[in-house]
Automatic annotation (TrEMBL):
Domain F5/8 type C residues, every copy: 452-590
Position of the signal peptide: 1-41
Protein's name in the database: beta-mannosidase
Catalytic EC class: hydrolase
InterPro entries xrefs: Beta-mannosidase_GH2, FA58C, Galactose-bd-like_sf, GH, Glyco_hydro_2_cat, Ig-like_fold, TAT_signal
A GO biological-process term: glycoprotein catabolic process
Any one GO molecular-function label of the UniProt entry: beta-mannosidase activity
The keyword Hydrolase is assigned to this record: yes
Enzymatic reactions: Hydrolysis of terminal, non-reducing beta-D-mannose residues in beta-D-mannosides
Pfam families according to UniProt: F5_F8_type_C (PF00754), Glyco_hydro_2_C (PF02836)
The entry's keywords: Glycosidase, Hydrolase, Signal
Length: 590
């Protein structure tokens, strides 16, 4: 659920999804099939105690500093992972939703000395795409549903010793900017935070023994909570690169409540500079590990006010976001895993730690990689334990089609960390991932972007800049349109011709006079033709087929053909997707 983010000072308009993740693989070396011991049948009394600037969190009267992680696996898998979580020195995990499925998580957490900041999800939490837009001024049905739903689960679990506190909402004060603007946005933010206070009072009435907080994405939400949610026991914020500025924001805001950091870690996609290919430059493994150390130092540096943190993310997802943030994607531990463990004073005795990657270089021009041709990368990696290293290369197309999947590719290992593999055959910016594994359950991961371009063709593109027409083209603003036929013959890969969503459709170019040609190159966007013909004509009416494709798969199609005519066209008869035909470039060469 990633989207390319718009990064503006102090705000985020798009970001990673933060709904609970599902585990993708078992945690290597920490899996146990032992049934969780039955938790004691009495809840804890958790309080925010102290006075202005000298607060503490207490559990049954004893001071409690939150040393936490956000929780990725399913509640049903808690017993597989929580022994490892506890071994890291973690005493708290954070979730985003609480319902009937939560009991195994609470029980297992209690059995392993871990407590849960139990979340309740409110729309439009987490930014765009995370749950729709609610009108908090008028939608009484939604609000009444939540006012009934949340206290029901509080009542169900309030006596479970695994519960630490309740957390109402996630990033909705910021997220509302994706639903409203201007004065209406301000009214909605006031209404939302007032509603959070209504829920807080309901929860306190059911459970006076656990605090209630509310998370947002930036400290700019706190003035709304200060104004409209006086019943919150403490504030909470998700903050990554800017986490060390939270202390200053709190001091300038004149707040009279402590806070916790409910997500933090390395700089996110929305707060790093773009690389040479115009996409966010992912931090190196070493920088990510340092990000957790720095974040914890800044949290603990605000004594008496910052009561701890749940850093992001104890997850095993093995995809775009998982590589950016997870401590153990596919169950393989990274430098960040051990950085958190060290920060929380978990035992490091006997630990075997991951390979350290100091460089990843792409041979040649990483901004002009010919599609489908050999590509060579060189990785410099060392292992602190002297383990034998193995290498894997993977590709991701998120910046082309929003796919988060990583695809392993066949490689030729040239030795010394040098790998050769085929570049993708689809034009656009791809990410390369190189994994370096030590055979002991640890992994180093480094990433680079490459811009894949059509391979060079001998000859002159006689279609370039010539008049082009089509059976149809999209005119609305969706996907960067209008997308006329001329876009397919302008020599640019950042625009396209896009047809209506029906079959058949065609695009033709007028060469001006009858001309011989020997090669055709088609650069498809994600919406491609599965079946089509390349045809030529002298009059634009009577057509001769010079190439037929029945099993197209998109990407870049290169054909050596023998043709002659004034007009050349692509005639699509079967779309490869539910969308129309979408063509970046139509090249005809003599």
């Amino acid at each position: 659920m990633y989207r390319p983010p718009t990064r503006t000072a102090g705000t985020r308009t798009a970001r990673r999804a933060v709904v609970p993740f599902a585990a993708a693989a078992l945690l290597a070396g920490a899996v146990t099939g032992v049934q969780a011991p039955t938790a004691q049948a009495a809840g804890n009394v958790v309080k925010v105690t102290g006075s202005q600037g000298a607060w503490a969190l207490t559990v049954n009267g004893a001071p409690y500093q939150i040393k936490g992680l956000t929780w990725g696996p399913s509640a049903a898998d808690a017993e597989k992972y929580l022994p490892d979580v506890a071994s890291m020195g973690v005493n708290t995990i954070r979730t985003w939703g609480t319902d009937a499925s939560s009991k195994p998580l609470f029980d297992s957490a209690a059995a392993h000395g871990v407590k849960v900041i139990a979340g309740f999800w409110l729309q439009p939490g987490g930014g765009p795409g995370s749950g729709g837009c609610v009108n908090y001024l008028t939608d009484t049905a939604y609000k009444n549903d939540m006012l009934a739903e949340f206290p029901k689960w509080v009542d169900t679990y309030k006596d479970n010793p695994g519960v630490l506190m309740w957390n109402v909402g996630n990033e909705s004060v910021l997220g509302l900017q994706n639903c409203y603007s201007g004065d209406e946005l301000e009214k909605q933010r006031d209404a939302y935070t007032t509603f959070v206070n209504d829920i807080t009072k309901k929860i306190h009435a059911v459970d006076p023994n656990h605090p209630v907080t509310s998370t947002d994405a930036w400290t700019g939400a706190w003035p709304y909570f200060k104004k409209n949610a006086p019943d919150l026991d403490l504030y909470a914020v998700n903050s990554y690169k800017e986490v060390c500025g939270v202390k200053s924001d709190w001091e300038k805001g004149g707040y009279n409540k402590p806070y916790i950091i409910t997500e933090t870690g390395p700089a996110g996609e929305w707060e790093v500079p773009d690389d040479a290919n115009g996409v966010p430059q992912e931090p190196a493994d070493t920088a990510k590990a340092e990000g957790y150390t720095k974040a914890w130092d800044c949290v603990t540096g605000h004594k008496g006010v910052a009561l701890g943190a749940t850093m992001f993310h104890y997850g095993t997802e093995y995809d775009f976001g998982g590589i950016w943030f997870n401590l153990l994607p596919a169950g393989e531990r990274r430098l960040s895993y051990y950085s958190v463990k060290k920060a929380y004073k978990g035992s490091t005795s006997g630990d075997n730690t991951p390979p350290v990657i100091s460089a990843l270089d792409v041979e040649g021009n990483a901004s002009a990689v010919p599609a489908g041709k050999d590509l060579t990368v060189t990785t410099k990696a060392t292992d602190p334990d002297g383990d034998t290293l193995s290498y894997e290369a993977l590709l991701n197309s998120n910046y082309i089609d929003q796919s988060k999947a990583l695809t392993s590719v066949p490689v030729t290992d040239l030795g010394g960390g040098k790998l050769r593999f085929k570049a993708p055959d689809k034009a656009g910016v791809w990410k390369i991932y190189v994994k370096v594994k030590d055979g002991k359950g640890n992994v180093g991961v480094e990433t680079r972007s490459i811009r894949v371009v059509p391979p060079p063709v001998d000859g002159t593109n006689i279609a370039l800049g010539r008049p082009a027409t089509a059976s149809s083209f999209q005119t609305d603003s969706t996907g960067g349109c209008p997308c006329p036929a001329s876009n397919a013959v302008d020599g640019k890969l950042d625009n396209r011709w896009a047809s209506d969503w029906s079959d058949p459709q065609w695009l033709q170019v007028d060469l001006g006079a009858s001309t011989s040609f020997h090669h055709v190159q088609l650069t498809w966007e994600a919406a491609y033709a599965k079946a089509y013909t390349v045809q030529t004509s002298d009059d634009g009416t009577n057509w001769r087929t010079v190439q037929e494709v029945k099993d197209g798969d998109g990407g870049i199609d290169d054909f050596d053909v023998q043709g002659k005519g004034r007009y050349v066209r692509v005639n699509g008869t079967q779309r490869g997707t539910g969308y129309g035909y979408s063509l970046h470039e139509f090249g005809v060469y003599n």
